[in-house]
Amino acid sequence: MTPTREQAWETLTRHTKGEALLRHALAVEAAVRWYARHFAENEERWAVVAVLHDFDYEIHPTLDQHPQDGAPILREEGYPEDVIEAVLSHAEHLSMPRDSLLKKTLFACDELSGFVVACGYVRPDGIETLEPKSVRKKLKQPSFAAGVHRDEVSRGAEELGLELDEHVANVIEALRPIAGQLGLRTA
Ligand SMILES: [Fe+2]
Ligand SMILES: [Fe+2]
């Protein structure tokens, strides 16, 4: 089966009701799609993985279950092994090699997209005029969006072979078109 983004969204929304988690999926999807276009990769396939990556988080909210216990559900629903493997690879505690551009991109966009959105929530125009340097400043304030793992943000950019500022700028650009959907103020 070649999964479509529509199927992935259906799987996600069957298991996930919380708005924050749905917005997280949309944000990561937008960032991963941006990179799929940038690298001339299979955008639909990458979107499927991004949409699904936390699909089981609401039913498996702890790391002894998420995302590994989601894998059998995805298998049951007919998702191919490469999609399941990419979904699993975003979890640091599973120590899976990020040996593809898709895996590196998903990891690099996961924490950062949430952080960029958090930066936008405290600005009058959302992420409309947000620049990497103010994101970098916020990254240095441990109390701001404290749940975001700073080390994963920098490692993500590094593994993609990008300067942090460059990666941040790309993610901001990717998220701007869906700012309204993410609950951000738009100009
Ligand atoms: Fe996750
Ligand atoms: Fe995530």
Please work out how many helical segments DSSP would assign. Answer: 9
Listing every helix as H and every strand as E from the N terminus to the C terminus, the arrangement reads: HHHHHHHHH
Tell how many strands the DSSP assignment holds.
0
**Overall form:** globular
Helix content: 55-70%
Which spans of ≥5 residues are poorly predicted at pLDDT below 50?
A: none
From the N-terminal CA to the C-terminal CA, the straight-line distance is 41 Å
Please state roughly what percent of the residues sit in beta strands, choosing from under 5%, 5-15%, 15-25%, 25-35%, 35-45% or over 45%: under 5%
- Overall residue-averaged pLDDT value: 97
Helix/strand-derived category reads mainly alpha
Bound molecules: fe (ii) ion
Radius of gyration: 16 Å
Quick tags:
187 residues, mainly alpha, 0% strand, binds fe (ii) ion
Notes on the protein architecture:
This protein is an all-alpha fold and 187 residues long. 57% of the residues lie in helices and 0% in strands. The protein contains nine helices and no strands. It has helices at residues 5-15, 19-38, 43-52, 71-76, 81-88, 101-121, 132-139, 150-159, 164-175. The structure holds fe (ii) ion (2 copies). The site of one fe (ii) ion (FE2) has 5 residues, from helix 2. The site of one fe (ii) ion has 5 residues, from helix 2.
